[in-house]
Amino acid sequence: MIYGCSSIGRVVVSKTIGWEFESLHPCNEKPFRSMQKLNKNIAESVDEMKNKVTWPSYKSLQNSSILVLVASLIFALLIGLMDTAFKNSLEWFYQSL
To answer: Exposure pattern of 69-94 as b/e (b: 16+ CB <10 Å)?
Structure first.
């Protein structure tokens, strides 16, 4: 049984000639083989998340969240003040014309 086969095939693009690109051959790929690759990829990702990733402590996470919240509020206030100053200066400018 052949899956995903095309009678036309792939045409070599002039930019890829000589660069050793392999053309795509969906006819050669068996469906169960791609599923095995997917399962292997998921298993490796789970292993990496469990054994190789360093997760922050709850206290560290709390401190970082508070720091981000305070910095965001400061930036929002500064941008709000700048917006108000530009608005007032432009209103004054256009009223004086």
So the answer is: eeeeeeeeeeeeeeeeeeeeeeeeee
Query: Residue 35 — very low, low, confident or very high, per pLDDT cuts 50/70/90?
Result: confident
**4 shares its domain with 43:** yes
Query: CA-CA distances (angstroms) from residue 17 to 7, 8, 12, 28, 81?
Result: 22, 19, 7, 22, 58
Q: Please indicate, yes or no, whether the overall pTM of this predicted structure exceeds 0.85.
A: no
Both tokens assigned to 30: 């068996």
**Number of domains the chain is built from:** 2
Q: Which two tokens stand for residue 51?
A: 């054994």
